[in-house]
Amino acid sequence: MIHKLPTLPLVRAVRLAGAALLLGILAGCSTAPSALEPQGPAAAEIAGLSRLLFVMGGAVYLAVMGFLGVALLRRSRRQGAYDEQERRTGNRILTAGVTLTVVILLVVFGFTVSTQVALSLPAKAGDLTIRVIGRQWWWEVQYPTQQITTANEIHIPVGRPVKIELLSEDVIHSFWVPELHGKLDMIPGETNVFWIEADHAGDYWGLCAEFCGMQHAKMQFLVVAVPPEEYDAWVARQQQPARPPADDLAARGQEVFLGGSCIYCHTISGTDATGRLGPDLTHLASRRTLGAGALPNNRGNLGGWVVDSQHIKPGNLMPATAISGDDLQALLAYLEGLH
What is the pTM of this model? Predict the structure, then answer.
């Protein structure tokens, strides 16, 4: 008696496979930064090597599967022992396979060395040096020559290689801007150096690529590449001290800030606030995000962060703040004036 196999599980399996494929396609259409869409010379070198390895690996896989299929087919048709001619043919195939393997490895090695040479620090990268310090879970960004300190944003001029010095104040982090370069670890007590360069003006997201604690996924930063004249104008603005309060409400907010515990963790140039545990707030209002990419920088999000940042990013160093509604509005008016 012949029993038919049930078709319902098969249909379900096909549907699940289709859904998985659709999700994969949709995931590929997201706006997440991709190392396969390079926007700088270093990333282009890495992407080129990746494509070469993929193509050669795919070709080797197809060749091996083809030879295996032919061997199995011939074996199934063959009866009896092999003669001398067939043995010689097999030896020639084996020799060709070994030779081809060596050639492929040499080609891959050559392209890898060439890529490593291309990724070495350009001589002119030392003209502009930026120091990035990884902390749980945000990024301190320093421009030593320009005497600028900011947080979670790196501004660079387009078409100019920039030297990046990477340090860590606590645990191992990893600096990665997929569209501009590869990854490099940030190790406590060590200074690692590499470079980035953007071919076009734009915003390029970076992230920590080494698990560093409970908020690792919310440790992002933004590289803002602009034309050289816009970069020079940004530097000039950042070198200025904090703007004084624009009105009475903002002046009241400054009193709230300086009279509370904020000054022990944050710095605002031109005031008595000189804390170093948290980000420098001198030009807070000019930044795109809060909490290292956790939220857009707007009044509502800023108020929520001030009142209870633990609800937004649990585990960060900033505790909840007990503050009245009137004082909060005044404080926000002051912070929003720090351009």
Answer: 0.81
